Amino acid sequence: xxxxxxxxxxxxxxxxxxxxxxxxxxxxxxxxxxxxxxxxxxxxxxxxxxxxxxxxxxxxxxxxxxxxxxxxxxxxxxxxxxxxxxxxxxxxxxxxxxxxxxxxxxxxxxxxxxxxxxxxxxxxxxxxxxxxxxxxxxxxxxxxxxxxxxxxxxxxxxxxxxxxxxxxxxxxxxxxxxxxxxxxxxxxxxxxxxxxxxxxxxxxxxxxxxxxxxxxxxxxxxxxxxxxxxxxxxxxxxxxxxxxxxxxxxxxxxxxxxxxxxxxxxxxxxxxxxxxxxxxxxxxxxxxxxxxxxxxxxxxxxxxxxxxxxxxxxxxxxxxxxxxxxxxxxxxxxxxxxxxxxxxxxxxxxxxxxxxxxxxxxxxxxx
Length: 367
Hints:
Layout: H1 3-14, E1 17-18, H2 19-28, H3 52-55, H4 57-71, E2 78-82, H5 88-96, E3 105-109, H6 113-126, E4 134-136, E5 143-151, E6 160-165, E7 168-177, E8 180-187, H7 190-203, E9 211-215, H8 219-229, E10 230-242, H9 244-247, E11 258-261, E12 264-265, E13 277-279, E14 282-283, H10 284-293, E15 297-303, H11 304-309, H12 313-317, H13 324-334, H14 336-342, E16 343-349
Parallel strand pairs: 2-3, 2-5, 3-4, 5-10, 10-14
Antiparallel strand pairs: 1-7, 6-7, 6-9, 7-8, 10-16, 11-12, 11-13, 15-16
Helix pairs in contact: 4-5, 5-6, 8-10, 13-14
């Protein structure tokens, strides 16, 4: 049975499907979801989008630079990477780090069995002695002294979609008619309305009618697993998104939901589900609030350009100064109109020495 037929059957049986459930099915359903099928590829020639670790090894070298700086002030000897893509970041990290500082373990937590297979093949092909450091695990429970990496993970965590219509708030859901899927809406309950009103008070703006927006209710479960499962950690998050006031700007009235195929945006998410990527901009203010609930410290919130420039990406790129492709890659990673400012870096820590100095500009006032 195709993924579309599975979705149609579920919508028919339950009356409707909430968008976060639909997104989860489209991305992760075993053997049919976008990230969980045999055709998934992060190869630049075959992929539908670009991620920073796949562009150049200098991205990994900047993370290494920051990791080594952290090690001077905090006893971290392990790595955990969530959603490791093709395994490129893991390979470049272990291949380029000073042999004296190779972590005890480089753990990978990967939901997709097909990507896990690709990662293992790449690790065995590229790495030699370092391959013994890499281990795939199911969760982060009871891992200590760890540097945690989540590169473009939160944008793929399914969110709910809401809309204000005729001064009332509704959740957008998916229904079926004449064997086809379409967007509909259901009234929000009191708890959801209260949550939305809290957002309005924080941003000092009432959402106008016909305003569409997303709220993620799955961040907290993801972060809870990390904050309760790891001890003595630094958590590195790289993703595109905004602080709350920018995310819910009055002019962003269609939300941030995007569908990608062949490096281009597509309009409908109902044609061939499972064949394209779905992503939603990260609400970094939400991540920050959740972390505070768990008494986790925010080390920094900054732009990708700020982070990379201050972790020696320019210096590390000199060896490629005659390679036009690498020069263009550097521009993609750093230029404001590309990844430089659209992507943010958020760093959490359960405890850190007061002597530790963050070398890049901090933008937490935007949270």
